[in-house]
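Reopening this one. Same input as before:
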Amino acid sequence: MAKCEICGKSVTFGIKMSHSHRRSNRTWKPNIRTVKATVNGTPKTLKVCSRCLRTYKTQQA
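Same output, byte for byte:
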C-alpha cells in the first residue's frame, strides 16, 4: 500500500467530476520513494513521501 512511514500519508479518496457534472470515484496517491536512511545508527530502507524526503534532506544539509 502507498503509505509514508514517517508522516503516515496514504491514499485519499474523492470524486472526479466531468464538465457535464457526471461523478465517478477516484483516488489521489502520495508520491512515495524508497530511500536508504540510517535510523538509530542502522541502515534501513524506508518508503517516504516526497514532502518528508525534502524535509529530511533539508535537515541533513
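So the earlier flakiness isn't reproducible anymore. For the record, The first helix runs from residue 50 to 60.
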